[in-house]
Structures are given as C-alpha cells and as structure tokens.
Amino acid sequence: MDHLKKSSLKHQIAEEIRRSIFKGQLSPGEKVTETKLSDSLGVSRGPLREAIQLLVMEGLLISTAYKETKVSNITTEEVTELLVPMRINIETFALKTLPIWNEQTFENLEEIVEQMRRASVFNDHPLFSDLDMQFHELIILSSDMSNVSNLWDAIFNRIRLLFTYQNESSLDLKKYTEAHSDLLDTFKTRDVDYAIERLRDHIILSH
After folding, report:
1. Mind listing the pLDDT tens digit for each residue in 100-127?
2. Residue 32: in which H helix or E strand, if any?
3. How many CB atoms lie within 10 A of CB 112?
4. CA–CA separation, 96 vs 148, rounded Å?
5. Distance between CA 173 and CA 48 in Å, rounded?
6. Structure confidence at residue 64 (pLDDT)
7. Rounded to whole angstroms, how far apart are CA atoms 9 and 182?
8. Residue 122 CA to its chain's centroid (Å)
9. Cβ-contact 195, 94 below 8 angstroms
10. 4, burial (CB in 10 Å: exposed 0-12, middle 13-18, buried 19+)
C-alpha cells in the first residue's frame, strides 16, 4: 500500500511540474532545484526526485552531468527534422482506418472544435493548446491500434512543449480553429487519400 501511495505521489508531483511548464510558469532553460520545488509544492525530496526523473524521461526536463536540472527547450532542427515528420507519419497512418470511424467520433471532434472557438474568444492559449492536442490525440485513439498510440505517447509531451513555446507569439486562434473545422469536414468525406493529404498540410503549416 505504501508503495502505491508513493507511486501515486510521484505522478501527482510530476503533473504539477508538467502543468507549470505548459502554462509557461517555468520557462525554457530555467533552472529548477529540488529545494525550490520541494518548498513550492510542499513535498519531500524522495518522491520529488522520482517525479523529476520521470519528466526527464518525457523530455520536459533535462539534467546535465553536474546534476543541474533545467526546463527543456526545442530546437528548430528537432521540429523540422524529427517532430513534424514523426507527427505526419503517425497521424496519417492512423487515418488509414478512417472508413470505420463512426458518427460519435465526428461528434467528439466537433465538440473539441466548439471548445476551441470558446477558447479563442477569451484568447486562452494554454486551453487552446490542450484542445489542439485532444483533437489530434483523438485521431490516434480512433485508430484503435496500440502500437500507434504508443508512438504518439512517446512524442506527446515534446509536441505539447512546442505548442507552449509557440504560444508566446501572436497566434491567430480563430483562424487556427477554423483550420481544424475544415480538417474535420475533410474527415467526414471519408476520402482517406484526401484526408491524409489535408492532414499532412495541416501539420506542416501548424509548425
């Protein structure tokens, strides 16, 4: 039981740090220390160290040889040469199961788009980024293929981190919302080749 509680605490701490990063409260390159995090979160060093190790594995934190820990950054090379190609391959592969999608899937995507519209009205970038990820994650989950989901999980946080940093610039949320709405309309045609082409263009333009 103690082990389960400890494991749960580790993940709770990791989620708090993760949330701070995605909200921009911890900036790229910013040094984080166990003392500072322990005080701010009100937790002991043991589970905190485990949470930090988890976030290092996720690519959200980076530790140097001297045990200094910082918030990760993302280079242009990683985006163009790694993340974008991986996203295209993973998401378009998932789309190949588009003919078996049911109306409930489309309704779920429509609901996400509507929430995007509301977030754009309030210019809520963090919420919008969460919804953007939900939209694309639903494409993956709809494929019902665990291997695709596992690949997505491996790059999820790096993509989310990229969205967080992009939001420091002036992103036209209304325009981006309609881009997702147009993409959904493409999916509804059930023309797989056309959907793959539009999704590929969408991912490239979003970066």
Report:
1. 678 888 999 999 999 999 999 998 888 9
2. strand 31-32
3. 21
4. 12
5. 36
6. 81
7. 41
8. 21
9. no
10. exposed
Total count of residues recorded for the chain: 207
At 3 the pLDDT is 42
Is there a contact between 92 and 199 (Cβ–Cβ < 8 Å)? yes
How far is 76 from 33, CA to CA, in rounded Å? 27
Asked if 137 and 152 count as a contact pair (C-beta separation under 8 A), the reply is: yes
Packed helices 146-166 and 84-95: angle between N→C axes, nearest 10 degrees = 140
Lookup: tokens for 35: 């003392």
Structure tokens at 111: 């609901």
Tokens of 122: 């309030």
Q: Please state, in angstroms and rounded to a whole number, the distance separating the CA atoms of residues 164 and 9.
A: 25
Looking at residue 137, the DSSP 8-state letter turns out to be H
Band (pLDDT 50/70/90 cuts) for residue 75 is confident
Whether the Cβ atoms of residue 135 and residue 109 lie closer than 8 Å to each other: yes
Cβ atoms of 70 and 32 within 8 Å: the answer is: yes
Q: CA-CA distance, 56 to 162, in Å (whole number)?
A: 16
- Looking from the CA of 144 toward its CB, the CA atoms found within 13 Å total 7
Q: How far apart are CA 99 and CA 25, in angstroms?
A: 42
Whole-model pTM? Answer: 0.82
